[in-house]
Design brief:
401 residues; alpha+beta; Pathogenesis-related Protein p14a; Immunoglobulin-like; 5-stranded mixed β-sheet; 4-stranded antiparallel β-sheet
């Protein structure tokens, strides 16, 4: 055989993964994990755990079915239109009553993500300050539903995962007149330093998609009137001056009666203790609320492979996880293969040594195809690149055997 000087070829491959959780069993598991994550977060915040209610499960599930049947999440949101497939009630309250839940107070949140990770839905809803009000609100009952729809072309997974949670109260919950809930809570550790603005309604529409500081919120009991006169955040005697106090719904312009939040315009510092102070009134009675929390340490951004490389046997797997950095907004944005061509008559076109799945934002699974890394190709390698919410990037090279 005629050999020529090796030519190194690199191919970038952005593959849609074959992750599929369309089965009812998988969807139930997704929603169960999301619900359990919320109760864990509520317990850590010293709030009572929510009670799972079958009727609310059914109303939430019905709205999921309507959303996925009509691709209505971005156009109709919480509403449904009579006559459309899967219609079960125009408003969340109507849907809850249809399925047998009579409530004196109710709420509904939804989330759509690109990964089959139930806890991510809950985390996203808690991080988003308007939705946080319901997640940590004074509800006693909740029900959840989950479904899938086809993802747009170019998505990392072929499905999108739609999650709905319905909240309700069958009776009045009595609390002290001066009740206040803050988040982060007093002395909370490892608080996220940043948030990427991506909520509807959007609290900072002019900064949509941009990285800001983690939102800090305060809530009175529902039905009480919270007025905030000042909301300050300090660290090491430095006042965070660039911030936005939100006391209205930026979409409807309606006042938030018992809730307010502060968004620092710049990300918070890592491994820093912050002191928050709110001065205001509850139903006209003055209060001063002070508390502190500490942000997480910033660790070096890493890509960690599960083994030294991707084994040569067909269907062998290599898992790669991204860790450290901001701890937030992980994206593994490209995987590419490189190898040398050792034969004059061979081109690299069409040679694929692996396929890829994206089970979570912070990890990928690489699966070995049948093509051997042997003559006429050699020195086979995978190159994985990722970043965090700050935009910091990291690349890892792993051999393909």
């Amino acid at each position: 055989m005629n050999h020529i000087k090796s030519i190194s070829l690199i191919f970038s491959i952005f593959l849609i993964a074959l992750v599929n959780i369309s089965s009812a069993k998988a969807q139930n598991r997704f929603s169960d994990v999301a619900f359990d994550e919320l109760n864990n977060r509520r317990k850590a915040a010293d709030l009572p755990e929510l009670i799972r209610d079958t009727n609310l499960d059914n109303s939430a599930g019905a709205h999921v079915n309507y959303i996925t049947a009509n691709s209505s999440l971005m156009t109709e949101g919480h509403l449904e239109a009579p006559g459309k497939k899967g219609f079960s009630g125009v408003t969340p309250e109507q849907r809850m009553r249809k399925f047998g839940y009579s409530s004196i107070a109710s709420g509904e949140n939804y989330s759509m993500i690109s990964f089959p990770v139930g806890s991510l839905s809950t985390t996203n809803l808690i991080d988003a300050p308007y939705h946080r009000e319901s997640q940590f609100g004074m509800f006693r009952d909740a029900g959840v539903g989950m479904g899938t729809q086809i993802a747009p072309s170019g998505s990392v997974n072929r499905e999108q995962y739609v999650y709905v949670i319905n909240f309700g109260n069958k009776s009045t919950i009595k609390v002290a007149a001066n009740y206040l809930f803050t988040y982060p809570v007093q002395n909370q550790k490892n608080v996220t330093a940043d948030w990427v603005v991506n909520e509807t309604p959007n609290p900072l529409p002019e900064m949509n998609g941009k990285r800001v500081g983690y939102p800090i919120s305060i809530a009175a009991a529902p039905g009480n009137k919270l007025e905030v006169k000042s909301f300050t955040l300090t660290s090491a005697d430095q006042v965070i001056s660039e911030s936005r106090l939100i006391t209205t719904n930026t979409q409807s312009q309606k006042k938030l009666e018992s809730y307010a939040f502060l968004i620092p315009i710049k990300p918070l510092s890592y491994d820093s203790t912050y002191q928050a102070q709110v001065i205001g009134t509850i139903n006209g009675i003055n209060f001063i609320k002070e508390w502190s929390f500490t942000t997480r340490k910033k660790l070096p951004l890493k890509l960690i492979p599960s083994s030294s490389g991707l084994a040569g046997a067909s269907k062998s797997e290599l898992n790669v996880q991204i860790t450290g950095g901001t701890g937030n907004g992980y994206v593994i944005y490209s995987v590419r293969q490189s190898f040398n061509i050792d034969d004059q008559g061979t081109s690299g076109k069409g040679i694929s040594l692996y396929s890829v799945e994206y089970p979570a934002p912070d990890s990928i699974k690489l699966i070995r195809n049948t093509t051997p890394c042997s003559y006429p190709i050699s020195d086979c390698e995978l190159v994985v690149s990722g970043r965090d919410s700050s935009g910091d990037e990291i690349t890892l090279g792993s051999p393909i055997y």
